[in-house]
């Protein structure tokens, strides 16, 4: 069996060497003998590692290590496939991917500490200069990916850029009503009222929906206009750090003011009445129906509606807008891209070639490896122009989104690598780029908290109390927004109930995790 | 040994059957009826693989379970997960909601297919009967996700239900799906719409089995159609109804969780959160398989007790029972 794989590997690499001789092999190979390793890798519930990916073959050619994917290359539930692999006890040489939602970091930490994955700290220090350099330059990344025992069990995927969800407003409506883009929360209120009352779409009916969003949580995020928080990171409902203290947004005193006002706006019809059930259809229905006025959503996809609806709605112009200043006069944006995603890849305990494997991981942090992971294969998806990678027209104007095309060939997948924002800039439309520029230059986006690494005791406390706490908080704020009960009448009972449900215990557990992880 | 017995058996008189050991009886029976055993085999294998073997996994309810350490490698924690469950006010709320939703389902959704079957039975025109039945079956074949989508749309503030209500003079549209007091009615009502037609098939089949001579003699005695329905048809299909009832009681705690998840909001947890959705949020979303299993064990124990009780009651009242 062993000789057979070696032989196959030799033939494969030989054919690659002679067949793909167009680009000279610049980097020194990691192994002189071709090496084949097994990899479990599945992401987005859709893609499994495929050794036929052009990028996988390119990397094999550059490094001499080819990876044999064990996860199905077809659709499936990534988390379940991962769990099955773990439960079998048979951990492949390399394990990685991405779960829907989050949780891969916790899996790496937990099973790593139980012995399923090899600690990478020494391997990185000895054999992976590029990764070491990245960690030295970003100590916070090192803290974020370290397990509670201080070891690193995975190399993370690191997105680039910081702008994600931003404000959009119907500029043509503003112009029609003779209004300016709102600069403060009060001006925003006036604009929303005007959208509601002054029939900006001109159909004679009061069918305008001033503020709408695809997620109920975006209505909740309006509390940021009163200086409160709705989450600490790029996912909803997360803890945040308030001057070195771990706090949950919904338990904080200033959330009360925020949610009181959100409830008032909802009652006044400034927020989509159906926001709780409209969900993912919101943009299509309300922008397409010429009734939606303001939203807070992903910068690129929302800008896309300008092209989509150009012919259907006369003068349609949905433009980025800077966040209105909150009641304290501060202009800030809560949502941004996180610097480290809780995804990536690690080395299984039974891997007999850890040194070669970490060198392969290191390759992805070299200039060449990073370019391949971001742009794909030179000549196939991009060309070098003035020493910089530029996507070919066939990709920019190809079928489906560019990122979709990249996944199909094995680029931009959540292995441990640093994303290069340039890849995205090349296919982002101009309106979105304007928004990104506006937010970057203004420095509006607040730092996204990178998450906790809880030890066993802390995790036990968190697991015991947190699901109920979150359910209770969600239930309460939805009732307040809907006006079923009154915030100010409920608030003391609400706080008391949070205490009964173990808020203090969870906070203490996370505080100790935070101090161990990020404290110096 | 058995060879000796065999010869002995054949030498004895053919009217004087020999005494067989248990082992021989089994082998003998198997030889004679092997075709029947062969037909039985798939079901036995099915139960062993899909029902009995997974039961071994229930031990993780008593363990601090880690997928990597495996079922036997994870440390024992005794009844800790059950303590977590029973001390949890939201778990008891979920139990309460499950019982209420199931109870109302039993009250309203269980009789619905019976009534529907009786009504189908009274339709004279064959063509219309077939058409009506087909229309009643159809919703069963629609995926639950689609049904939920339809329900969400119909009951939205701008949906058809509110349009009709406002036309009838109601002042403000109601946002039904965010109101806890409406959840049960919508959930059970839409379930009846979806399943009543299909479930009526079994009762229609039972009605077909009722002897026509009973109706003929009743007609001679001058019974009305309505009297025939509740004096002949209903008593004749009562055993079927009772068996269906016992089965239903066994599934009393199994509220269709995917449908609840599609319809509920945090705002309606108060009446909508059932045991299975609680397990989903508490256990599966956070990978707490051990606590989720403990809740599953609790669920199974209660369901088991319910089936036994229902079976006993049915046995005593009508001599009809599952065992």
What is the element layout, followed by pairings?
The complex is a heterodimer of chains A (520) and B (323).
Chain A: H1 2-19, E1 35-43, E2 47-48, H2 54-63, E3 65-69, H3 78-88, E4 94-97, H4 104-113, H5 121-127, H6 129-137, H7 139-145, E5 155-156, E6 165-170, H8 171-176, H9 185-197, E7 209-211, H10 216-220, E8 240-242, E9 245-247, H11 253-267, H12 275-278, H13 282-288, E10 292-298, H14 299-303, H15 305-308, E11 318-321, E12 344-347, H16 354-363, H17 367-375, E13 382-385, E14 388-391, H18 393-396, H19 402-409, H20 421-425, H21 430-442, H22 456-482, H23 487-500, H24 503-518
Helix pairs in contact in A: 11-22, 22-24
Chain B: H1 2-11, H2 22-56, H3 70-73, H4 80-86, H5 89-109, H6 111-122, H7 126-137, H8 144-154, H9 160-167, H10 180-208, H11 212-220, H12 225-250, H13 257-263, H14 269-272, H15 275-284, H16 289-318
Textual characterization of the structure:
The complex is a heterodimer of chains A (520) and B (323). With 520 residues, chain A is of the alpha+beta class. Chain A has 24 helices and 14 strands. In chain A, a hairpin with a 3-residue loop joins strand 1 and strand 2 (47-48). In chain A, helix 22 crosses helix 24 (503-518). In chain B, helix 4 (80-86) crosses helix 16 (289-318) and helix 15 (275-284) packs antiparallel against helix 16. Mean pLDDT of chain B is 87; it is low at 1-5. Chain B is mainly α. The chains are: A alpha+beta (520), B mainly alpha (323). The interface between A and B is medium-sized, with 30 and 29 residues.
Gyration radius from CA atoms of chain A, angstroms: 25 Å
Structural class of chain B comes to mainly alpha
Number of helical stretches of at least 4 residues of chain A: 24
Number of strands of chain A: 14
- Low-pLDDT stretches of chain B: 1-5
What level of helicity do the residues of chain A show?
40-55%
Largest contact between chains: A-B, 30 and 29 residues
Q: Characterize the biggest β-sheet of chain A.
A: 6 strands, mixed
Strand content of chain B: under 5%
Order of helices and strands of chain B: HHHHHHHHHHHHHHHH
- Per DSSP, the total helix count of chain B is 16
Shape of chain A: globular
Sheet of most strands of chain B: none
Task: List the quaternary state of the chains.
Answer: heterodimer
Q: Give the integer mean of the pLDDT values of chain A.
A: 90
């Amino acid at each position: 069996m062993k000789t057979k794989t070696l032989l196959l590997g030799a033939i494969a690499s030989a054919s690659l060497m002679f067949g793909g001789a167009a680009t000279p092999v610049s980097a020194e190979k990691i192994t002189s003998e071709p090496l084949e390793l097994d990899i479990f890798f599945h992401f987005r519930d859709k893609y499994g590692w495929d050794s036929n990916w052009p990028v996988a073959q390119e990397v094999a050619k550059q490094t001499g290590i080819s990876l044999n994917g064990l996860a199905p290359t077809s659709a499936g539930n990534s988390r379940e496939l991962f769990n099955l692999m773990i439960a079998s006890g048979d951990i492949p040489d390399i394990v990685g991917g991405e779960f829907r939602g989050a949780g891969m970091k916790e899996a790496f930490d937990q099973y790593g500490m139980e012995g399923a994955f090899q600690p990478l700290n020494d391997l990185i220090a000895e054999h992976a200069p590029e990764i070491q350099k990245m960690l030295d330059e970003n100590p916070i990344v090192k803290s974020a990916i370290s397990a509670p025992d201080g070891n690193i069990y995975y190399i993370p995927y690191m997105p680039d850029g910081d702008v994600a969800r931003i404000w959009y407003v119907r500029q043509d409506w503003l112009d029609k009503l003779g209004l300016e883009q709102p600069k403060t929360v009060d001006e925003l209120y006036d604009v929303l009222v005007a959208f509601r009352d002054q029939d900006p779409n001109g159909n004679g009916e009061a069918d305008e929906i001033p503020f709408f969003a695809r997620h109920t949580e975006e209505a909740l995020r309006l509390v940021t206009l009163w200086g409160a928080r709705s989450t600490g990171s790029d996912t909803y409902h997360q803890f945040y750090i308030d001057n070195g203290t771990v706090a949950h947004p919904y338990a904080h005193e200033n959330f009360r003011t925020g949610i009181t006002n959100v409830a008032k706006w909802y009652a006044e019809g400034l927020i989509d009445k159906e926001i709780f059930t409209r969900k993912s259809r919101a943009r299509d229905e309300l922008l397409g129906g010429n009734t939606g006025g303001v939203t807070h959503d992903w910068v690129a996809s929302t800008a896309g509606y300008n092209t989509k609806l150009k012919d259907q709605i006369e003068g349609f112009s949905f433009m980025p807008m800077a966040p209105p200043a909150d009641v304290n006069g501060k202009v800030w944006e809560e949502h941004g891209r996180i610097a480290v995603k809780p995804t990536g890849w690690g080395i299984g305990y039974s891997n007999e070639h850890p040194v070669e494997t970490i060198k392969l991981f290191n390759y992805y942090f070299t200039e060449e490896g990073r370019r391949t992971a971001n742009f794909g294969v030179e000549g196939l998806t991009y060309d070098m122009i003035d020493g910089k990678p530029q996507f070919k027209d066939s990709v920019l104007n190809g079928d489906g989104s560019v990122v979709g095309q990249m996944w199909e060939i094995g680029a931009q997948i959540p292995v441990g690598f640093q994303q290069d924002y340039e890849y995205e800039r090349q296919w982002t439309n101009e309106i979105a780029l304007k928004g990104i520029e506006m937010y970057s230059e203004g420095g509006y986006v607040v730092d996204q908290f990178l998450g906790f690494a809880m030890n066993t005791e802390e995790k036990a406390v968190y697991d015991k109390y947190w699901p109920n706490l979150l359910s209770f908080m969600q239930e309460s704020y939805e009732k307040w927004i809907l006006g079923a009960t009154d915030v100010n009448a409920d608030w003391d009972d609400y706080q008391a109930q949070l205490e009964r449900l173990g808020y203090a215990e969870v906070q203490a557990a996370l505080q100790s995790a935070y101090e161990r992880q990020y404290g110096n | 040994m058995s060879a000796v017995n065999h010869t002995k058996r054949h030498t004895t008189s053919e009217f004087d059957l020999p005494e067989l050991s248990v082992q021989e009886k089994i082998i003998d029976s198997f030889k004679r009826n092997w075709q029947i055993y062969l037909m039985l085999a798939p079901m036995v294998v099915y139960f062993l693989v899909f029902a009995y073997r997974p039961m071994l996994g229930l031990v993780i309810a008593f363990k601090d379970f880690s997928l990597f350490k495996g079922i036997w490698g994870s440390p024992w924690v005794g009844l800790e997960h059950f303590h977590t469950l029973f001390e949890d006010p939201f778990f008891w709320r979920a139990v309460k909601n499950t019982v209420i939703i199931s109870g109302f389902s039993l009250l309203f959704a269980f009789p619905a297919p019976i009534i529907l079957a009786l009504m189908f039975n009274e339709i004279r025109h064959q063509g219309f009967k077939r058409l009506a039945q087909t229309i009643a079956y159809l919703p069963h074949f629609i995926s639950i996700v689609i049904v939920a989508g339809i329900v969400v749309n119909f009951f939205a503030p701008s949906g058809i239900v509110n349009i009709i209500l406002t036309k009838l003079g109601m002042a403000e549209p109601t946002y039904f799906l965010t109101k806890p007091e409406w959840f049960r009615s919508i959930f059970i009502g839409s379930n009846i719409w979806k399943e009543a037609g299909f479930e009526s098939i079994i009762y229609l089949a039972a009605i077909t089995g009722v002897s026509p001579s009973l109706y003929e003699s009743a007609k001679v005695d001058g019974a009305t159609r309505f009297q025939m329905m509740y004096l002949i048809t209903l008593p004749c299909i009562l055993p079927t109804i009772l068996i269906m009832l016992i089965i239903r009681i066994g599934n009393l705690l199994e509220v269709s969780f995917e449908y609840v998840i599609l319809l509920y909001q945090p705002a309606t947890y108060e009446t909508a959160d059932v045991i299975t959705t609680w397990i989903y949020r508490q256990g599966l979303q956070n990978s707490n398989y051990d606590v989720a299993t403990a809740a599953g064990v609790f669920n199974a124990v209660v369901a088991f007790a319910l089936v036994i009780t229902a079976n006993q009651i049915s046995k005593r009242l009508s001599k009809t029972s599952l065992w």
